[in-house]
Amino acid sequence: MEDNEAPSLISRLLAFALVLLLLSALFFFSFSQLQYGWNWSAVWQYRQKFLHGWMTTLLISVAALGLSLLISVFFALARRSRLLPLRYLAMLYIEGVRGTPLLVQILVFFYVVADAFGINNRYVVGILTLAFFAGAYLSEIIRAGIESIGESQIESARAIGLSPLQTYRFVILPQVVRRILPPLAGQFASLVKDSSLLSIIAVSEFTLNAQEVNAFTFSSLESYLPLAVGYLLLTLPISLFSRHLEQKFRYAT
Amino acid sequence: MQLSLTHLSKSYNNQRVLDDISIDLPDVHALVIIGPSGGGKTTLLRTIAGLERPDCGQICINGKPLLFDAASLLLHRRSIGTVFQAFNLFPHLSALDNIMLPLEQAQGFTHEEALATAQAMLQRFQLTAHADKKPAQLSGGQQQRVAIARAIAVKPRFLLFDEPTSALDPEITSEVLDIIKELQDEGRDLLLITHHMGFARTVADHCLFVAEGKIRESGSVDRLFNQPESVQLQQFLGRITRYD
């Protein structure tokens, strides 16, 4: 790849325009075949509701994202721990969460676990469930990243007299971050979309609000198309930001 | 330096890599270790470097026994300079940062002191122009020179080289060997594993032939090369100098 010359700006723009045109044509044709009475004005009245739901989704996602990162770092390290109980806990957590539907996890967590511990705030429960769900996937990404750092580098770090903690801080972490950024960004985008499932425990997020507008106005597409755009507005910045960071941390290996 | 090893043994998976090694070298300045691959010479060097714990036995350097608890080994590693065959440098750090990292984090230098020391090192090895390059942008010889610069920047008690040129092209090899020779001329103590017999002759004041986990022969380079006593060393020298 690197030996090839980068395509010029003109050819990139042309190629992008071509792809955009083809996709637009596909959707334009599909929509034009649709016998559907559009009624955007009914939905427009509820724009505040959409905005409110979108903001809620944004806040839930940000909170769950931060929390999931902490959880995943802990379990990624626990998975590599020499303490067996810690390692088994991490294994059970990761396999349990990755092997079961988020829908079931939300229900069990909300109606059983949270109830037993007296947590009544559904937003807190929602954020916790999402964070633990995403944390399982993230911790495997982080673990694979750590294990991709060659033994010879850890050896070099020891030889120059770095402590294990310093080795993580100065040798492993900076390289792991660079390597796992793409899958990390993908997982974060998934988390944002997965937050829509919190609608089943009546967390008033973006999807629930769209569903309600749909019920009030009997206009299904007009409620759900803005939903797609709204989620894109949240997930696209994640992709762009991760690509920006990738460029910044770029170095040949 | 004084170096003595007493009943040093080490096994991996029931395989004896070091087999009851004992030797006392009261005054050695350039120790060259030769021997066939898998004979235990790298393990021996790594044990002296504080990177391996022996199963039993003792290492004594300049009269002080080496302790094998984690904290003592860390301090020991901080007091010496080790250069491996290859892949010494961290790929995400520039040449300059590679040299600065141990100074700042393991040696307690301030940022300014580390920077000044690292720059002086780069200048000494004619690497100033490459200070900001990542290892992948440097040639193999330049990488090893940075690795050596990093090792001596910490003012080590002695230097350990584990076949420092084995991953290099022959024409680059001499540029690294020249530096090692230079360091020896400055009076630095060094331990070196090498397959370059000519170079061994030039630098070594003592030579060990290690095979099957034991020191088979010990003495001056001339003695080992010209009058090998054991059949193993005769065969080894025969193989290694066949096309010289």
Entry summary:
The complex is a heterodimer of chains A (253) and B (244). Chain A has 253 residues and is mainly α.
Number of domains of chain B: 2
Question: How many domains in all of chain A?
Answer: 1
Q: What is the C-level CATH assignment of the largest domain in chain B?
A: Alpha Beta
Task: Report the helical percentage of chain B.
Answer: 25-40%
Overall pLDDT metric of chain A: 90
| CATH C-level name of chain A | Mainly Alpha
Notes on the structure:
The complex is a heterodimer of chains A (253) and B (244). Chain A is mainly α. Chain A has helices spanning 9-33, 40-44, 47-79, 84-99, 102-116, 122-147, 151-159, 164-194, 206-217, 220-248. The model of chain A has no long low-confidence stretch (mean pLDDT 90). Chain B is an alpha/beta fold and 244 residues long. In chain B, helix 6 links the parallel strand 7 (159-162) and strand 8. The radius of gyration of chain B is 18 Å and the shape is globular. Chain B has a six-stranded mixed beta sheet with strand order 6-7-8-3-9-10, sandwiched between helices. Chain B has a four-stranded antiparallel beta sheet with strand order 2-1-4-5, with helices on one face. Chain B contains nine helices and ten strands. Chain B has two domains: 1-80 and 160-244, P-loop containing nucleotide triphosphate hydrolases (Rossmann fold, 3-Layer(aba) Sandwich), CATH 3.40.50; 92-155, no CATH class.
What's the layout of helices and strands?
The complex is a heterodimer of chains A (253) and B (244).
Chain A: H1 9-33, H2 40-44, H3 47-79, H4 84-99, H5 102-116, H6 122-147, H7 151-159, H8 164-194, H9 206-217, H10 220-248
Helix pairs in contact in A: 3-4, 3-6, 3-9, 4-6, 5-6, 6-8, 7-8, 8-10, 9-10
Chain B: E1 3-12, E2 15-25, E3 30-34, H1 41-48, E4 56-61, E5 64-65, H2 70-78, E6 81-83, H3 95-105, H4 111-124, H5 140-153, E7 159-162, H6 170-185, E8 190-193, H7 197-203, E9 206-211, E10 214-219, H8 221-226, H9 231-240
Parallel strand pairs in B: 3-8, 3-9, 6-7, 7-8
Antiparallel strand pairs in B: 1-2, 1-4, 4-5, 9-10
Helix pairs in contact in B: 3-4, 3-5, 4-5, 5-6
